[in-house]
What we know:
The structure holds two protein chains of two kinds. By secondary structure, chain A is α/β, with parallel strands linked by helices. Chain A has a single domain (6-226), classed as HUPs (Rossmann fold). In chain A, 29% of the residues lie in helices and 26% in strands. In chain A, the strands form three sheets. A nine-stranded mixed β-sheet of chain A has the order 11-10-9-12-8-1-6-7-13, with helices on both faces. In chain A, helix 2 (73-83) packs antiparallel against helix 5 (207-222). By secondary structure, chain B is an alpha+beta fold. Chain B folds into four domains: 15-81 and 157-202 and 209-244 and 347-424, FAD/NAD(P)-binding domain; 97-149 and 248-343, D-Amino Acid Oxidase, Chain A, domain 2, CATH 3.30.9.90; 427-459, no CATH class; 469-599, Alpha-Beta Plaits, CATH 3.30.70. Helix content of chain B is 29%, strand content 20%. Chain B has 18 helices and 24 strands. In chain B, strands 1, 2, 8, 9, 10, 13, 19 and 20 form an eight-stranded mixed β-sheet that branches. Chain B has a seven-stranded mixed β-sheet with strand order 6-5-15-16-17-14-18. In chain B, strands 3-7-4 form a three-stranded antiparallel β-sheet. In chain B, a hairpin with a 2-residue loop joins strand 19 and strand 20. The radius of gyration of chain B is 24 Å and the shape is globular. The interface between A and B is large, with 35 and 48 residues.
Amino acid sequence: MPNIFHIVVCASIVPDPLQTLEPISGPTGPALKNELMLPMVLDPWAACALYEAANLAAANPGSKLWLVSLAPKAKLQQVMMSVAQKVAFELVPVDGPLGGFTDAQSTAAALAEAVKSIAGLDLAKTLIFGGWESANRGAGVTLQVLGELLGTTEQFQGVDEITVNADGSFQVLERIEGGRHQVSTCAGAPAVLGWATGKLPEPRNNPQIGMANMRSIMPALQKAKAVKLEDGPKYLSVALPKQQRETRIVRDTPAEQIARELVDWITAE
Amino acid sequence: MSGDGQQVERQRLDVDIACVGFGPAVGGFLTTLTSGLADERAGHVESTVAPGMPPQIICYERADDVGFGVSGVVTRARGIRATFPNLDPAQIPMATPVSGEKVLYLLDPIGASRRSRTLRLADRLLRPFVRKGTYAFELPYTPPFLRKHDGLVLSIGQFNQWVATQVMGSGLAQVWPSMPVAEPLIENDAVAGIRLVDQGTDRSGNPDAGYMPGMDVHAQLTVIGDGPVGPVSRAIDEHFGRPEGHHLREWALGMKAVVELPEDCPLPEGTVLHTLGYPEPEIFGFLYVHPNRLASAGIFVPSWMGNPLRTAYRYLQHYMQHPYLWQFLKGGTLRSWGAKSLQESGRHGEPFLAGNGYARIGECSGSTNVLTGSGVDEAWTTGALLAEGVLELMRAGKPFTRENLEQVYVRRRRESWLEEESQTAADARNGFQKGFVRGLVGMAMAGMTRGLFAFRHQIPPPHRQIANIVGYYTEKQIAVARESAAASNIPLHDALMNARGWPQIEFDGQLLISHQDALLMGGKVQATPGFADHVQFADVQLCLRCGERTCISMCSGQAITQGEPGEPPAFDREKCVYCGACLWNCAQSTDGERGNVRFNAGSGGLHSAEN
Lengths: 269, 611
């Protein structure tokens, strides 16, 4: 008997990590300078979760895949131009604020409402996927709180692999210290899996998948429910880690010299 | 066919309209088209490939985002405003109305610029009229043909994002970035659609891990707006030819920096400065001030600049440090950087605008006005005009044949202001082939007489516009430079600029940074693996014989470098910004017209949306 999963991937969008990010204090608290002007991508951690989810859904016929995303509608639409070419999914957009400083509790509450509103979703078969971390915020608690709000007690964080057994149970590899994995076996859905990088490469762009996805994405975006998140913690200040860039292009530099320079640089810090 | 010549099975998609490239031309096309389709009062239109559905309209963009274009945009925005009569610039990030405009002739404060005797004399005569320390002569007025006083300063990246959001929001067209188009599908002398690029290949295009053959998109109409160096445009030219006497022989490389101005910078937003005369007389420049203390500063390095070593990035740094500009830029921080080729043949480069199953719009259709230095609004207008014609044909149920497209699109274009201004500009720049001063005189003549008088010089193919390195530089300069390049491990073109007297750039880590840092911090350049190298050298022997190797000095991203001895230049796809300068900066030719560089469909490049 096939295992049928209802997989819900929760993924926000973040500024393209290649961009120069500068924290500022705005009228509503800390923010990133020109954040709405920056090109956005699906949060890279959650993107790994999406690719793993698509792979799992494909391997278990009858399974379904939804992508729940909380972000300003216009920006979400822009990101979907790229993401929708990767794997097949149904978008559940939530029109809300962007940024790494929104409160995790109220974000999770908004996501939980969106998940509960998915027509046809069977919570008993549901696997909630998301990023273990986020390129936007390092609190790493949104997914956990979401699981609690949905009443899902089986939770795994830092997941790199899931292997489903014939009886619907599955084995999970979670990252632990020392570059090793903890192996757990879960009796089956429902469960929450916060993904690390997973093991799958980013899928190639497939125009046919894009065309198929977009038929449901645009109507969903037009009907996206707007949410206002509650105020969270007050940040006294925000700053970037100290950075230093000194680029030189020197051909054929011996590896020993490069290593020595790196050691000198690190020890001088 | 795969890279090794094997037949492969390709996915097929059928659509009504397929567009190649998302820039201002296709933006104008899709905005006008979707808006017309949404207006049911004007007539209901149905898809011919998916009966009962609205027309299936799709656009593929090579870059990884619709906002990764480059342009130094100041535009009168006549066409854009015609599409958006209630346009509020405040809705578009980095957009603002032009508040002031000046034309500046920049003197050489260093003494390294190659100036003719006539120009040196002119410099001497102008010095008494120059404010001390600025080395810049402000023209008492802006010639009418250059004026943009009623226009807008834009960021093309932000503008394209804004347009794409609305087009996609209509639900009537899809825009897909990160999807290069390899070539047109030509069947029975008609364009039947496009083939997308193969993914999951090695550098030579052979199938590799995750191989996915590019899909064939069959379309009733293919709209080509792939810019100045688009492979689809070139393939169509190769198949169908160009109108008699029309060539792509005049080019320029535009390179710009987006700078966060220092807090005490007095320039108001909307300021527009056009410059000429420095760092070399042939290099024109600009400084435009956006809202929020951002400015775009850039240069244009033209194909008619004989110098075989066209080191644009270094010239840009010298340009920004010119005393007149440095008084505003000093203390600023680089936010973004980028480069692109500009097709400056104008009317002389106009291809067949329409044929069976296809139409061409924007820069690849010769729409750039080389007299006014304006391209974005012209490109937008060509797209809007095509959309009006396409709506007319769709509502009448007529096919996209050459005759029909000429009737509804080419006729509209010929009757528009584009045509009149294109005629005026046709020969405006020809004089530059005979020198800078003659070029300026020619521009003024054409501009003042609406094209009645202009120099009618023939324009040689690009490879013949590149001077021989021996002769352009003295033997002594070359010898000193070669020695210095070898001793300091720097490129020969840098060493030659040093030998000419250009000072070393003192990096400040903010605005004056190394070329590689500009790629990373400004352009955020990146390329996804799994695509073939899109730059290839057709005849290796020609490269080995080439003494100029202008492709290396002109490469905007330092992606082309000296190869190993006995090999052609090396290409690093991960550094390519897809400016296409190598296409026309080759001193060799395989057929008397084209250079030796083949520039194919490629993925990756700039990842900045602020250019």
